[in-house]
Amino acid sequence: EKYILEAIHYCEEANDSNLLPIRYGMASELYHAKGDDVRSLNYARRPFALDSLNGNTPRMGIRLSQMAAAQLALKQDAAAERSLRRAIPILEEAGNKLSLSICHNQMGELLNRRGAHAEAATYFVMAAETFARNNDKYNESRARIGLYEALKESNPQEAGRHLSRYAALKDSIYQHEMEQAVSQYNVKYKTEELAHKQEQERLEKRVIL
Q1: Mind listing the pLDDT tens digit of every residue in the chain (209 residues)?
Q2: Among residues 124, 53, 61, which one has the least CA distance to residue 93?
Q3: Taking CA atoms, which of 59, 89, 139, 169 is between 20 and 30 Å from 66?
Q4: Are the C-beta atoms of residues 90 and 64 closer than 8 Å to each other?
Q5: Is 95 helix (H, G, I), strand (E, B) or coil?
Q6: How far apart are CA 138 and CA 205, in angstroms?
């Protein structure tokens, strides 16, 4: 957080209209991840305005998706839907499949919340297919649990398949996170062990001297 805010400060001081929207977008995603969605929405609106002024339409689609993420978290569903319905055609035209699929997940979640499960499923299917092709397990898992919620009443068998896929993805994500944690621990342990060994060698040299 500190480094992003510092980067924003320097970009504002330099009046850097190219980098500043990117830094604002990073701050929006950071605060959304931290659950501070009022601040996240504020930071998403700033780069949207700048990208609009700069005529950067493809990036406007990304900013609208960031705004929608915060709006959904704040239960501002009508505003989130407006953001997504503006973002989706922009991202389709730009060929930004990743951001487009994130919007598909967001729209599916919004529609599920409203009870429009059949329409939600169409968005989740598009998202799941794209994320599966790109081996994006986290976002695919989000689409799969959305499909389960959308289909569990109308098609329990199909919903069950998506739930099984969701469980497998979550297990894989957990396993990867555990492996990363163990690897980081091993690096830290070896670093500390080496530092201890070097300190011991220095002490031994002092005794000899």
Answers
A1: 888 888 888 888 888 878 888 899 999 999 999 999 999 999 999 888 888 888 899 999 999 999 999 999 999 999 999 999 999 999 999 999 999 999 999 999 999 999 999 999 999 999 999 999 999 999 999 999 999 999 999 999 999 999 999 999 999 988 867 767 665 665 566 666 666 566 666 666 555 55
A2: 61
A3: 169
A4: yes
A5: coil
A6: 53
Q: Which residue has the tokens 């931290």?
A: 34
* pTM score over 0.90: no
CA distances from 41 to 35, 105, 163, 198 (A): 11, 18, 31, 50
Token pair recorded at residue 49:
């305005």
Helix (H) or strand (E) holding 110: helix 97-114
C-alpha distances out from residue 189 to 12, 177, 185, Å: 41, 18, 6
Q: Which residue has the tokens 């297919």?
A: 129
Residue 115 CB coordination number (10 Å): 7
